[in-house]
Design brief:
The radius of gyration is 22 Å and the shape is globular. It has a five-stranded mixed β-sheet, with helices on one face. The chain has a four-stranded antiparallel β-sheet with strand order 13-14-15-16, sandwiched between helices. By secondary structure, the protein is an alpha+beta fold. The protein has helices spanning about 25-35, 65-75, 145-150, 170-185, 215-225, 230-245, 250-265, 265-270, 290-300, 345-355, and strands at about 40-45, 55, 80-85, 85-90, 120-130, 130-135, 155-160, 190, 195, 210, 275, 285, 310, 310-320, 320-330, 335-340. The longest helix has 19 residues, at about 170-185. Helix 1 packs antiparallel against helix 5 (about 215-225). Helix content is about 35%, strand content about 20%. It has two domains: about 20-40 and about 215-355, Beta-lactamase, CATH 3.40.710.10; about 40-210, no CATH class.
Length: about 375
């Protein structure tokens, strides 16, 4: 806790704890500093003489169906009327491991990441007596959906496309190609059914460059509001690539974040934050109370990006045996609750803090 004079009070201030998703605040702060709040993710489109369209991405986490439709309209406005086949260029990422802490479940929070991927690498499914289709109007029904929906009970689903037993890079390339093809056809652009992965030849000039319609500030707000692991890790990797060049790697991202935290917080405080991924999924991440409070002080100008809950701006962090909170009380005083224990008592602790430093919070769980 920090009082009105900026004095740190409490116990175990320098003991390391597993932070879980409150570490997304660090990811957001560093990204806003390194990339800037108006940064926009880039996706390039190359067209060869035979009409083959190659998509090269820089890890845009917001390539949802609506954004892809916008891109297709831009391509049509530039004169595109026919595509022979679609290729995905994954060369701007060189990840030596899977997402740290990622599981192999069907859950969206376990989605893999890549430089060119759509809809957070999740598939919206509607399974009914009439068949299998898309669960949202902006996303056409794709062949991949029909495969994933086989054997499921009737209902609505949002499934991780890169689940156990799949090759994440291949399946996310297929999903991207299928979505682009469907939306090209929907916009009266003829498109063949073939797709592949290949690198854009050196010296090629893009047919079109798309900058995402959402700037980084809006991306970070969505990441924090929905605690989206997919967004957080792509932002994390982009920070590393901006500092040390593409292709993006986990090691570049870790080094870039550590260096920027040392600049923002000072070397001593930065040593209290060990960040190995952007989302807080890994149990190898560590933070101390003292360093998190200093991080929150640095993040204070951006605190409105945090969702409001129990009357305060805060971020939760939850893993098995981890129940954390970090945010700001009524007058902007930062607080952090780090509970690495079996019992989830974080909101009663917040009530106590608000009783001491602000208005009492509504009861919560």
């Amino acid at each position: 806790m920090v009082d009105g004079n900026g004095t740190v009070r409490g116990c175990a201030l320098d003991s390391p704890f597993i932070p879980a998703s409150i570490l997304k605040i660090s990811t957001a702060l560093v990204a806003l500093q390194v990339l800037g709040p108006d940064y926009r993710f880039r996706t390039e489109f190359y067209l060869d003489g035979a009409g083959n369209l190659t998509i090269r991405g820089f890890g845009d986490p917001m390539l949802v169906s609506e954004e892809v439709d916008l891109i297709v309209r831009e391509l049509r406005a530039r004169g595109l009327r026919r595509v022979r086949s679609i290729a995905i260029d994954p060369s701007l990422f060189a990840l030596d491991s899977d997402v740290p802490g990622r599981g192999n479940s069907d859950n969206p929070y376990d989605a893999a990441v890549g430089p060119v991927a759509v809809n957070f690498n999740t598939v919206p499914l509607l399974v009914s007596r009439d068949g299998i289709g898309s669960a949202e109007p902006q996303t056409p029904t794709l062949p991949l959906m029909r495969e994933m929906g086989r054997g499921l009970q009737p209902g609505r689903y949002r499934l991780n496309v890169c689940r156990k037993g799949t090759s994440p890079q291949q399946v996310m390339a297929r999903y991207t190609a299928e979505l682009f093809r469907a939306l090209l056809l929907r916009n009266d652009i003829a498109c063949g059914s073939g797709w592949t992965t290949r690198k854009v030849p050196a010296g090629s000039v893009p047919f079109h460059v798309h900058l995402d319609s959402k700037n980084l500030e809006r991306v970070c707000a969505a990441m924090l509001r929905y605690s989206n692991n997919y967004i957080a890790n792509l932002v994390f990797l982009t920070v590393g690539a901006r500092r040390f060049g593409y292709p993006a790697t986990w090691e570049k991202a870790r080094k870039a974040v550590a260096r920027q935290l040392a600049i923002l917080l000072g070397p001593a405080a930065a040593t209290g934050i060990r960040q190995v991924d952007g989302a807080g999924l890994s149990r190898k991440n560590r933070v101390t109370v003292r360093s998190m409070l200093q991080l929150l002080q640095a993040f204070c100008p951006h605190r409105l990006l945090l969702p409001e809950r129990h009357g305060v701006r805060l971020k939760t962090g939850t893993l098995q045996g981890v129940y954390n909170l970090a945010g700001y009380l009524d007058d902007g005083i930062p607080f952090v609750v780090l509970l690495n224990q079996p019992q989830n008592r974080r909101f009663p602790v917040l009530d106590r803090l608000r009783g001491l430093y602000g208005r009492k919070a509504d009861s919560g769980s």
